[in-house]
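Milestone M4 deliverable, item 7.
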Amino acid sequence: MERLTHADRACAVAAAAAHDLNDELTIIVNTTSYTLQTLEPGHPARPLLLDLQHAAQRCVWKASGLLNYGARRARPVNVPMERLILESVEPALR
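Output delivered:
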């Protein structure tokens, strides 16, 4: 992998984290929405599920911000997030 600047690495990590987070949030949002549709209006779990749904939607908004931050770089890096993080902790010697 070519050497990246700190800014390139920060953008790549932000984008990779946002993509991973979006995958998990999609499951939460879809499951919560489906469950809310199947419950009766007075079911005691509805308020908790609505809170969960709103929290997940806020997280989607935050992940979108990370994606926008990561997209500011013209040259995307297609590397797993774990590798980017490990290389930022222990930079390669050259």
